[in-house]
Amino acid sequence: MNKKFSVVIAGGGSTYTPEIILMLLDNIDKLPLRCIKLYDNDEDRQNKLAKACEILVKEKDPSIAFIATTDPAVAYTDVDFCLAHIRVGKLAMREKDEKISLKHGVVGQETCGPGGIAYGMRSIAGVLENIDYMEKYSPDCWMLNYSNPASIVAEATRRLRPHARIINICDMPIGLENSYAQILGKRDRKELDIRYFGLNHFGWYTSIKDKEGNELLPKLIQHQLQFGNCPEHIEDGNYTDASWRDTAMKVKDLVKLDPTTTPNSYLQYYLYGDDMVAHADPNYTRANQVMDGREKRVFGECERIAKAGTAKGTSLQIGIHANFIVDLATALAFNTHERMLLIVENNGAIENFDKDAMVEIPCIVGKDGYEPLSIGKIPTFQKGLMEQQVAVEKLVVDAWIEHSYLKLWQALTLSKTVPSANVAKELLDDLIDANKGYWPELK
Ligand code: NAD
Ligand code: G6P
Ligand code: MN
Fold first, then answer.
1. How far is CA 367 from CA 35, 39, 47, 165, in A?
2. What's the CA gap between 115 and 370, in Å, rounded?
3. What is the mean pLDDT of residues 8-33?
4. Is ligand 2 within 6 A of the CB of residue 172?
5. 319: pLDDT confidence band, cut at 50, 70 and 90?
6. Whose CA is nearest to atom 14 of ligand 2?
7. Residue among 15, 95, 172 to mutate when testing ligand 2 (max atoms within 8 A of CB)
8. Which of 214, 218, 201, 189 is nearest to 339 (CA)?
9. Ligand 1 contacts CB of residue 16 (under 6 A)
């Protein structure tokens, strides 16, 4: 088959766009392309990256058409895949989410706790709007969505666009499995066969085997009790920055709670929220680090490329983590039956858990979409935590649909990161103020 595919990147102005383009270009033998489009609703921001992206494409393969647009009709007409990574409110609103939470002594995080709830209330409309464009202009297109907060977005699309061709996915398991592979002396995460269950940014590995079928989880956990997800010699770790190194190290404490599974490191925000708050600087949060770090670096390099008229010698790197996007698109395009962790409706896969909860579990992906694998029963500790968190996510979507102040207060109160209904109410009132124009008006 010599079909070539057309791809639109929604959220074209994202800091991740150049590395995703490089990753697509590095894989054109697997997923042949005829067109790459960037789409954003912020023209100025997207323009800061677009010229450099065009140069990257043209220098690799001039036969691939390149378009950057803010017109949904242009963006979504004749596309096979939409790679969606929008951030409604951009990093400026992420900063507010994090700082307002910390002001109330609560975890200030992009996708967890009040920050994730506030971000969810902003994201739903943006993602639905993009689904609607896709369905209007390219009804056979698949949206591979990794816009956050993925759990809340997934629950909203399950309810409000039940037939949409959207697949919600997260790169965190890829990052975790890469570190497990390194710790276990493997070259690649694909040398490991894993079992995992949970919610997005809220799950556990129950098995990690080599290709001969030997169980490696006990060995991994022994290592984690001493070094977390860091290699024995920390300098061998491939950390984008200190905050990710600290997260990898904190796994040391997380594994103590259940030494028969190994957790997604995002659980640190729920299980050690007090440590996270104590460790945070309420005046300089992760959003500030990203704006001063990744954003400056990526936009600066794109400006340099555009001025130079060439990407030769660029410091931009292929998004290695982002490989899962090509794996997923290839599985849909070529029916590869790749086994991947996706965020899907439970529907009995986890036997003793809500049928209509959006869970993160292994699925087999082929040309008709995905088929979840059966997980069986999960233990009481994980089940209890997940039930509480799923209820939070469902209440956020209820609040968005019904414009309900009460439901959002309940969501915040129920979040494991928030100590009481009093604190939840104070947080809610501050978040409403900060999110004017982004949230529906709550009654
Ligand atoms: P960013 O702010 O740099 O870029 C996001 C872009 O989205 C901006 O250019 C913004 O203008 C655009 N945008 C906002 N609303 C839009 C809309 N309605 N339609 C079209 N474009 C819109 O953000 P970033 O730091 O690069 O992150 C991008 C997104 O990817 C975030 O949601 C982030 O959480 C997510 N992400 C997810 C994963 C995952 O594992 N699921 C991994 C990495 C990043
Ligand atoms: C991981 C998660 C994403 C999240 C990102 C934040 O990749 O899977 O969901 O958006 O981390 O990283 P940052 O560097 O922006 O804090
Ligand atoms: Mn994620």
1. 21, 25, 34, 12
2. 30
3. 97
4. yes
5. confident
6. 290
7. 172
8. 189
9. yes
In this predicted structure, which of 277-286, 320-329, 336-345 has the lowest mean pLDDT? 320-329
Please give the Cα distance from 205 to 177 (Å, whole number): 10
Q: How far is the CA of 252 from the centre of ligand 2 (A)?
A: 20
Residue 24's nearest CA partner among 66, 74, 70 is 66
Q: Length of the chain, please?
A: 443
Examine the pLDDT at 376 and tell me if it is beyond 80: yes
- CA 374 – CA 379 distance, rounded (Å): 15
The long-range contacts involving 153-157, CB below 8 angstroms and separated by at least 24 positions, are: 153/120, 153/123, 153/124, 153/127, 154/200, 154/343, 154/344, 154/358, 155/358, 155/393, 155/394, 155/396, 155/397, 156/120, 156/124, 156/127, 156/128, 156/397, 156/400, 157/127, 157/128, 157/131
Q: Cα separation of 357 and 199, whole Å? A: 9
Write the DSSP symbol of residue 149: S
Q: pLDDT digit string (tens) for 379-399? A: 999 999 999 999 999 999 999
Pick the residue whose CA is nearest to atom 15 on ligand 2: 290
Please name every residue paired with 33 in a beta bridge, in sequence order, or none if there are none: 5
Q: How far is the CA of 112 from the centre of ligand 3 (A)?
A: 11
> Can you read off the two tokens belonging to residue 318?
């292929």
Active site residues: 171, 266
Q: 0.90 cut: is pTM over it?
A: yes
207-256: per-residue pLDDT in tens?
Answer: 999 999 999 999 999 999 999 999 999 888 888 889 999 999 999 999 99
Average pLDDT over residues 356-371: 98
CB-CB contact of 18 with 55 (8 Å): no
Q: Read off the tokens for 357.
A: 């909860």
Q: Check if 171 has its Cβ closer than 6 Å to any atom of ligand 2.
A: yes
CB of residue 158 inside a 6 A radius of ligand 2? no
Q: Whose CA is nearest to atom 6 of ligand 2?
A: 110
For residues 171 and 175, give the distance between their C-alpha atoms in angstroms, rounded to a whole number: 7
